[in-house]
Design brief:
- The chain has nine helices and no strands.
- By secondary structure, the chain is mainly alpha-helical.
- The chain is about 75% helix and about 0% strand.
Length: about 200
C-alpha cells in the first residue's frame, strides 16, 4: 500500500485520536484533582493535567492543520477554521471545530486565573466538559468500531466521573434547597394550637 497520497489524512486521524484520548485523560485527572480527597496529591495531578491539556491542544491543531495538505479532502482554510461551512460532514466537522476552539480558549485561561479571579475561573472552566462532549460527538460520527472500542477505555471512565460530579452537585443543591424550605421545629410547635383539657 502506498501511504504517501494518504499521509496528511492519516496524520490528521492519528492526531485527532490522540487528542480525544488525551483530553479524556485530562478531564478525568481534572475531576480527580477537584475532589476533596485529592488534597495530598493535588500538586502532582495539576502538573499532569496541565501537560495533558497542552498536548491535547497541540494534537487538535495538528489534526486540523494536516488536512490542509490532503489533496482528496482539500478543505481549505475556511473548512478547518470556520464551523459548519465545510462540505465534508458539516455538522460533525463543525462540532469538532467548536470543540477545538472551546477547549483551547478554556485551557489557555488557566494562565489568566489571577486576572479572571479563581472562583470565576473555576466556574468558567466547568464548560470544558461541554466542549469535551462535543469532541466525542465529532469523533463518533467518523470513527471505526475498533477505535471507538479502544477509546472507550478512557472516555467511559472520564464520562462516569463527570456524571458522578453532576449528580453530586444536583444532590447537594437539592439537599440544601430542602433544608432552606423546611420550617424550623420551633416554628411548627409555636404555630400549632395547644390542646387544653
Amino acid at each position: 500500500m502506498n501511504v504517501a497520497p494518504h499521509l496528511f489524512w492519516i496524520t490528521s486521524r492519528a492526531a485527532g485520536g490522540a487528542a480525544l484520548l488525551l483530553s479524556s485523560a485530562s478531564v478525568a485527572v481534572g475531576l480527580m484533582m477537584s475532589s476533596k480527597r485529592a488534597s495530598a496529591t493535588k500538586r502532582d495531578l495539576r502538573a499532569v493535567h496541565e501537560a495533558m491539556s497542552l498536548t491535547t491542544l497541540a494534537m487538535v491543531a495538528l489534526h486540523g492543520l494536516s488536512l490542509l495538505g490532503d489533496s482528496y479532502l482539500n478543505p481549505g482554510l475556511a473548512g478547518i477554521a470556520i464551523p459548519f461551512v465545510g462540505f465534508y460532514r458539516p455538522l460533525w466537522t463543525g462540532l469538532g471545530i467548536v470543540a477545538g476552539y472551546g477547549l483551547a480558549a478554556l485551557g489557555l485561561t488557566y494562565y489568566l486565573r489571577d486576572r479572571i479571579g479563581a472562583a470565576r475561573w473555576r466556574r468558567l472552566h466547568r464548560l470544558s466538559a461541554v466542549f469535551w462532549l462535543a469532541a466525542i460527538a465529532h469523533t463518533i460520527d467518523a470513527a471505526q468500531w475498533w477505535f471507538l472500542s479502544l477509546s472507550a477505555a478512557l472516555v467511559l471512565p472520564a464520562g462516569a466521573l463527570l456524571l458522578l460530579r453532576w449528580l453530586g452537585r444536583w444532590w447537594d443543591a437539592r439537599s440544601s434547597s430542602n433544608r432552606a424550605t423546611a420550617p424550623a421545629s420551633g416554628a411548627i410547635t409555636s404555630s400549632m394550637p395547644r390542646w387544653r383539657p
